[in-house]
Amino acid sequence: MQLTITFRNLEASDFLKEHAKERVERVTRHLDVAGMAHVVFYLERHLHCADVTVQAGSLLLRAGHATPDMVVSLDLACDRLEEQFRREHDRHKHHHARDWVHHQLGAFESAG
Questions:
Q1: Which of 4, 23, 45, 54 is disulfide-compatible with 78, CB 3.0–4.6 A?
Q2: C-alpha 8: how far from chain center
Q3: Is the Cβ–Cβ distance between 47 and 68 less than 8 Å?
Q4: Coil, strand or helix: which one is 62?
């Protein structure tokens, strides 16, 4: 996973870089395809904002959050990404796989 971190209107800190790396790795550990992630930290008046974008193959996930604390903003944005990834994974899951296994084994054919 290629990670890019951008700081706008504030000083770069090693703590935020390491924390962003850990959180993005936690979100992307379930991806099958290697991709890239971009984290943007910026200030809007009194709010600390964090935007996270993850792209892997055809999957594109984006989330952002703004709170008075930058670490909390990043954590909440990554939580949103995890939720998006979970929904996307459930969308592509074959929910009738169990029924399909019974058809393959011939369980319904012998009953008739």
A1: 23
A2: 22
A3: yes
A4: strand
Q: For residue 59, give both structure tokens.
A: 């999957």
CA pair distance 14, 28, nearest whole angstrom: 21
Sorted by where each starts, the structural domains of the chain and their CATH numbers stand as 2-105 (3.30.160.100)
Nearest Cα neighbor of 27 from 16, 38, 15 is 38
In sequence order, what are the beta bridge partners of 4? 38
Q: Return the percentage of the chain with pLDDT > 70, whole number.
A: 83
Structure tokens at 92: 């592509």
Q: What is the number of H-type helices and E-type strands within the chain?
A: 3, 4
Q: How far apart are CA 8 and CA 53, in angstroms?
A: 16
Nearest to 17 by CA among 25, 65, 9: 25
pTM attached to this predicted model: 0.78
CA distances from 73 to 25, 37, 58, 79, 111 (A): 17, 17, 26, 10, 58
- Tens of pLDDT, residue by residue over 72-85, are 999 999 999 999 98
